[in-house]
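Data availability (excerpt). The following record was deposited with the supplementary files.
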Amino acid sequence: ETAIKIGATGTLLDGPAKFNITNQKDGSLRIEGSGNAKFDRMKKHFNAEAMKFVTNDADWSGVVNINNGKGELQATAITQVLGTPAKFKISTTGDGTTLLEGSGSVDTAALEQQLHLAILKYFSKTADWNTKIKLKNEKAEITVNANGKLYGEPVALVISSLGNDAWDVRAQGVATPSMIRRLYPQPWVDALSGTSSWTGHFTTKGKQYGGQIESNLRGLTSNLPEPLTKAAYDSWASRIDIGTASPGVERWQVRIGERLSAQLLAQEIGYGKHVIEKGEVVFGGSASIPARDGIWLTGRIENLDADGWRALAKPMLPGSHSGGSGGAPFNFGGVDLAATKMTLFQRSFVNFKCKVAAGKEQWTIALDGPDVRGDASWQPDGAGRIVARLTQLTLPPELPNVGPRGALAATGPGRLPAMDIVADRFQVGNRKLGRLELMATQQGQDWHIDRVQLSSPAGVFVADGVWQGWLDKPQTALNLNLRVSDLGQYLADIGYPKTVKRGSAEIKGRVSWTGDPYALDPPSLSGSFTLGAKSGQFLKVEPGIAKLLGLISLQSLPRRITFDFRDIFSDGFAFDDISADVNMSLGTLSTENFVMAGSAAGVLLQGTAYVRNETQDLRVKVVPSLGETVAIAGGLAGGPIVGVGAYILQKLLRNPIDKIFAYHYTVTGKWDDPVVTKAARPQQEKKIIQR
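Predicted structure:
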């Protein structure tokens, strides 16, 4: 009927302990105690998995209540978990179950060493945790909840024991561009915005582990070039599987929606650092386990924005062979890609196929498609050198509204390689330019064209010069020589059909314009050239730049004057010889000696033509070849003697009859709607007529 209290000292788990034992009036027994339990003894006494993370002795205090032969424990213990302080509450129930509840913070590097879970290598240095450990019949049920940061973003972990040193790890968090930038500090991350949630599930046993991270990427916007452009509301079911392939080697399996899949083998080269030795990235298909060294890009892409990827690709170009300063470095293996539509150099190519095998000193390239077909090699030293032998090279028209070229220059490659290119058939848009031979090198911001030759059955064009500021504000300057054996066919090949019939021509000079060598910009033309042409005929000209030829051929002149030149000009002026010296300044063409001579007439053009607004300010002198006609008429009217006399007389007087019938005009207005005004005859010709 009275309580009995006893004080005692001793050892518990090899450590000193103090006890107060009270025999209660109701017959129950209460034991209060405190002490220090030794780590080595705790490891032997408790379940090994329960003690997996404990690393030091434990100071403890607690109470045991025993009633009717059943005891219940309530205690607290302070120890260390993986080297950092931790506090536990310990309780037991009447069925023999022991429950441990604890909390603290943990060094994530030490936790990774225990669980061998690679994702923990990318966590913040410490993580807060709480745990529940249930012990019964020498079996342990362990659940650890941890909260930390994965590359700066909150992440939650639930770690559960599976027995036999196996663990189940579940994670969830949010992916943001800032998190991805810390993982891969590359320019392409700037094209991402928004957030998207993700979940992860891993299992580990010993040093083996495997699992996956999943996300639908909803909420994340990608302004990356196609095929990886994505709106925030788009849902792309994506998954990354990570597992142990062999000691020190991880296998990563990646799927991003239906866009691409990849399998990568990553060799660990340091804590949290890997190098990708083998990999296969497949667009529009499933990747298999890589067998070849390096990363290979394969598959088919519906719409490929190669210009956009070029602007982001500088760290991955030859000479770098690296994924940049962050992420996993890699060795590039090659390409076997097909694109239904590809935008490159602001032009749209269709049904394009490309195969590339990368070597240390040279890459081999095979190209196939309706626009480009042939073989090439790339030597990556310095700015690089391309040698290409193509059967077909067609440059489609430039796309409108593609944005400033300077944006490409700001982030993209800053140098063009040296080039040695031969294309049997070279075409720009619909203009067939013949066989191309090009030798060029880059010097500073300029690309020096050592020699370019375009050869066709109709003519040969040879030039050298410089392509200045080629990537940002291109300017082309060329020394040129064009020899044409069939002027009509040559003009048809380069896009001006049915403008001239037959004829030969030669042009020599130095010209420049704003833009690329393959994209003549008439409004910016400057320089000078000499022109010579023989034995051709101007035809009726349709609208376009060829309207300038209509101006030269004077086909509209008969509609504007009373004297009937319809038989000479309207159906196309036939010329025996043309010669001219032409100066150009920003699309303004001027000449003082453009002379055309034909059997029907002679023509002198002087003045200026303006390409920018297609107008002119010309003086035209037309001299019909009437001398022979007069002589013939005289012979018919007065007999052979009179006719011969007239013929001899006009030759001796240097065609005075032709001069009598010379006509003078000013031509202004638009090329396709000229204003022709008859001009006064010069004084010298008036004196000849008077005589």
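Summary of structural features: The radius of gyration is 44 Å.
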